[in-house]
Amino acid sequence: MRVIALSTLKAFFNRSPAYSDAREPLMAWYRQVRNSDWAAPADVKQAMRSTSILKDGRAVFNVAGNKYRVVVWINYPYRMVYIRFVGTHRQYDAIDAETI
Fold it and tell me: Beta strands of 16-96 (E only): which ranges?
């Protein structure tokens, strides 16, 4: 899969020393997604069981033992993953994952 944009992940864990523990788990998530080939939501669930599949190609990944969340939009035919949000559970609760 092609992941757009790695800079979103880097901006998050460089934003504050409080998020520095997110660096390695987020980069591990990035590498796993980059090395995947998902043709359908079922492929995502098979690869990462804790993923929540939303409507319209969106998915929510729990990262670092559920400490952080990553919301993406997946274009399955083109094998592209667009990072829409990265944040803590509290920050995630303040957004609408289906429209962000």
Answer: 52-53, 58-63, 68-75, 80-88
pLDDT value of position 17: 94
pLDDT range class, residue 81, cuts 50, 70, 90: very high
Alpha helices in the chain (DSSP H): 6-15, 23-34, 41-47, 89-93
**Taken in order 32, 34, 38, 41, is the CA torsion positive or negative?**
positive
Which residue type is seen at 31?
Answer: R
User: pTM value?
Assistant: 0.94
Give the integer Cα–Cα distance in Å for 67 and 55. Answer: 23
